[in-house]
Amino acid sequence: MISRSIFLVGPMGAGKSTIGKLLAAQLQLPFADSDKVLEERTGADIPWIFDVEGEAGFRRRESEVLRDLCHGPTQVIATGGGIVLMEENRQLLRTYGLVVYLQASTEQLLERTSKNANRPLLNVADPRARIIELVQQRDPLYREVADIICDTDHCTPKQAALMVAERLSQDATSQ
């Protein structure tokens, strides 16, 4: 039985939202996507928020959403790729749930994100170089908060969700 929320962290394109929905269904828990919650609250999409308020404004709003989700019911929560940038957020993740770092290769991240123009940080001349830069910057922070690390490279979202559920089960029985 899962008694704490499960936070999925990792770079954009690692599968947090897709795997999160499947994992939540498997664990019979509610699912929340912090980016979707933020968009619903503001009535604006993330690219618009970035354009108007910049990354700093977006990060402030993202932290507010995370704080609220932490105080909600036990659930599976897909977070934005940059949620770990703020120390306050890392503390919230560690305090209020189990953190699963979903990682994937640069090639997989590039392939998965190339189908979605809704990613302001990748609206650059060389998205591949930008993904490498973001992963290098954020990987140590993902690892700092992670209770479990799962590689999503060579599996379907359903297989990844099963793998995470299995790891969560093993983690729960070993405590």
UniProtKB/TrEMBL annotation:
UniProt keyword Phosphoprotein present: no
Family: Belongs to the shikimate kinase family.
Residues that, per the record, bind Mg(2+): S17
Binding site for substrate: D35, R59, G81, R138
InterPro entries the UniProt entry points to: P-loop_NTPase, Shikimate/glucono_kinase, Shikimate_kinase/TSH1, Shikimate_kinase_CS
GO molecular function: ATP binding; magnesium ion binding; shikimate kinase activity
Enzyme class per UniProt: transferase
Cofactor dependence: Mg(2+)
Keyword terms of this UniProt record: Amino-acid biosynthesis, Aromatic amino acid biosynthesis, ATP-binding, Cytoplasm, Kinase, Magnesium, Metal-binding, Nucleotide-binding, Transferase
Stored PROSITE patterns: SHIKIMATE_KINASE
The name this protein goes by in its record: Shikimate kinase
PANTHER family in alphabetical order: SHIKIMATE KINASE (PTHR21087), SHIKIMATE KINASE 1, CHLOROPLASTIC (PTHR21087:SF16)
Keyword Transferase among UniProt keywords: yes
GO BP of this protein: amino acid biosynthetic process; aromatic amino acid family biosynthetic process; chorismate biosynthetic process
Compartments reported by the entry: Cytoplasm
One GO cellular component, as annotated: cytosol
Cofactor detail note: Binds 1 Mg(2+) ion per subunit.
Catalysed conversion reaction: shikimate + ATP = 3-phosphoshikimate + ADP + H(+)
Principal subcellular localisation of the protein: cytoplasm
Residues at which ATP binds: G13, A14, G15, K16, S17, T18, R119
EC code: 2.7.1.71
Subunit structure comment from the entry: Monomer.
Function: Catalyzes the specific phosphorylation of the 3-hydroxyl group of shikimic acid using ATP as a cosubstrate.
